[in-house]
Amino acid sequence: MEVLMRNMFQSLGKSPSANKLAKKYGLRFGAGRFIAGETIRTAIDAVRRLNADGKVVTLDHLGEFVFTKEEAIESADMCLRTLDAIAEAGVTSNLSLKMTSLGLDISKDLCMENMRKILDRAKKYGNFVRIDMEDYAHCQISLDIYRELRQEYDNVGLVIQAYLYRTEQDIADLNEINANLRLVKGAYKESPEVAFPEKKDVDENYKKIIKQHLLNGNYTAVASHDEAMIEFTKSVVKEHGIPKEQFEFQMLYGICEELQAKLVKEGYKVRVYVPYGIDWFGYFMRRLAERPANVWFVLKNLFK
């Protein structure tokens, strides 16, 4: 049953008609728990609240799979405006983005042009930009672009997914450029030809790459709500004397808030991934696909 629900939500997330309907009716039925509104103002308000609780943030203006140059330029402009708003408000937040929203599927040159504009603006403010990893079809090109950008910029990082067979080798290769990585389990539906189909295998690989990247001496963002993975990370850093300045824990907005607060109290850096914007439906469906508990939260809202 859980697998069927996960597949259904993943399919819905890719449906243009479902996305159109969601935009029409707005952030209803519980989506507001996971998305900080549709405007920069509401997003900055969320960042302020999280900062007041001792957490840092990465803001993501939601959007992916644009199909025109105009849409890509508009999406890049929203990233620039987000960086401006962070600086003007004096809040503590990085920027996260998806390169498909910047025109990657239209032209690599267009995407690179937009990425350079965003990284230049971030550098001006002393800020940092994280490139989200997308589905497997975009994995190699994302790695290639990241390597190219790292030749010019030191304020850019990448996301790496534990459920892919190739990930251990990718991290070994990225050690050459001292990559700043966010390590995640992975939220897209992928073929067993490229990804571990069993959760236990994903979990084991996740532990392996957390330890691998930490021991390489590179900055590591462990993005998980799985307490076993968090405790594993704590044990690795304690055993090997890794300073708290070399890693952070990352969690999603609206999820495991008590655990976030506990980690802050223990003195760990906790960064909350805060998405906002009108193109929120695909992200919301992936959150429902990941955690059945999120589905029940939404169903309860339907009957309020």
Structure description:
This protein has a domain at 63-83 and 95-268: TIM Barrel (Alpha-Beta Barrel), CATH 3.20.20.220. Helix 1 (2-13) runs antiparallel to helix 11 and helix 11 crosses helix 12. The protein is globular, with a radius of gyration of 18 Å. Helix content is 50%, strand content 13%. An 8-stranded parallel beta barrel has the order 1-2-3-4-5-6-7-8, surrounded by 8 helices. Strand 7, helix 10 (257-265) and strand 8 (270-276) form a beta-alpha-beta unit. It starts with a helix and ends with a helix. With 304 residues, the protein is of the alpha/beta class. It contains 12 helices and 8 strands. Residues 44-298 form the Proline dehydrogenase domain. It catalyses: L-proline + a quinone = (S)-1-pyrroline-5-carboxylate + a quinol + H(+). GO terms for molecular function: nucleotide binding; proline dehydrogenase activity.
Features:
304 residues; alpha/beta; TIM Barrel
Return the CATH topology of one domain. TIM Barrel
Bin the strand percentage.
5-15%
CATH architecture heading of one domain: Alpha-Beta Barrel
What is the oligomeric state here? Answer: single chain
Shape: globular
Number of helices: 12
Return the average pLDDT rounded to an integer: 89
CATH class designation of one domain: Alpha Beta
How far apart the termini lie comes to: 25 Å
Q: Low-confidence segments, ≥5 residues, pLDDT <50? A: 297-304
What's the helix-strand series? HHHEHEHEHEHEHEHEHEHH
Kindly state the number of beta strands: 8
